[in-house]
Amino acid sequence: MKNKEHTRQVRDTVVKKFKAGFGYKKISQALNIPRSTVQAIILKWKEYQTTANLPRPGRPSKLSAHTRRRLIRDAAKRPMITLDELQRSTAEVGDSVHRTTISRILHKSGLYGSGKKKAIS
Questions:
Q1: Residues 6 or more apart from 44 whose CB is under 8 A from it?
Q2: Which of 32, 48, 83, 99 has the fewest CB atoms found within 10 Å of its own CB?
Q3: Which uninterrupted H or E stretch holds 77?
Q4: What residues contact residue 6 under an 8 Å CB cut-off, 6+ apart?
Q5: Residue 44 gets which letter from DSSP?
């Protein structure tokens, strides 16, 4: 399991030593990093020809940008609309998502729900 990334300088040094003919074990001892790390850096360099940190993939969004904007617009237009109504409206468009997903989207855009205020008599 990886727990930290090495600096670009260290990764470049590993590749430089590898090009100079050093083996994994010698590079590992010289730079005081694990042999498996040296191996991973070199394999990545061989495949991508770079030592930069590549972007990591993330889970794709359930909703399209169009549907997300529509949700926010509906919630802003009708402040008393419920999450269930918004869920049904997204299902009509073709995107079926959970209520918590809708709530999360609204929260990220700065819209929060509030309950009915009780009058104190």
A1: 50, 51
A2: 32
A3: helix 65-77
A4: 33, 37, 41
A5: H
- In sequence order, which residues have a C-beta less than 8 Å from that of residue 33 and are 6 or more positions away? 6, 10, 14
CB-CB neighbours of 56 under 10 Å:
5
The two structure tokens encoding residue 35: 């042999």
Among residues 113, 105, 117, 102, the alpha carbon closest in space to that of 78 is found at: 113
Six-digit token string for 116 = 């009915």
Q: Please give the single-letter amino acid code of residue 24.
A: Y
Q: Which of 115, 87, 80 is nearest to 103 (CA)?
A: 87
- Give the side-chain half-sphere CA count within 13 A for 81: 21
Whether the pTM exceeds 0.70: the reply is no
Q: Tell me: the pLDDT tens digits for 71-117?
A: 999 999 998 889 999 999 989 888 889 999 999 999 999 988 765 66
